[in-house]
Design a protein that fits this description.
Layout: E1 3-8, E2 14-19, E3 33-39, E4 45-52, E5 61-66
Antiparallel strand pairs: 1-2, 2-5, 3-4
Length: about 90
């Protein structure tokens, strides 16, 4: 198991511990899976599919720490000014 720390989430930021692909995997060469393009019935590009390799589990993750939400200050106005914003 090869672990790494990641920061996830926009609304609720969290530090998680995830599994990573095996770098010396002979099947995927450390990419973690296989991507292939496919087309529609007219032969035009329609998207890319991803098949994960068996050397890792994408769903294996553990929550380490939920980070508090810090309110953002408005940087567009001067708090000491008595003039209306234009």
């Amino acid at each position: 198991m090869r672990l790494r720390i990641q920061l996830t989430g926009w609304d609720r930021r969290t530090l998680i511990l995830t599994d990573t692909p095996r770098p010396d995997c002979p099947r995927c060469d450390g990419d973690g899976g296989f991507a292939y393009d496919y087309g529609d019935h007219e032969g035009e590009y329609a998207g890319t599919e991803w098949d994960p390799c068996t050397c890792w589990n994408e769903a294996r993750r553990w929550t380490l720490l939920r980070l508090p939400r810090i309110p953002r200050r408005r940087a567009d106005r001067d708090p000491w000014s008595s003039e209306p914003p234009f």
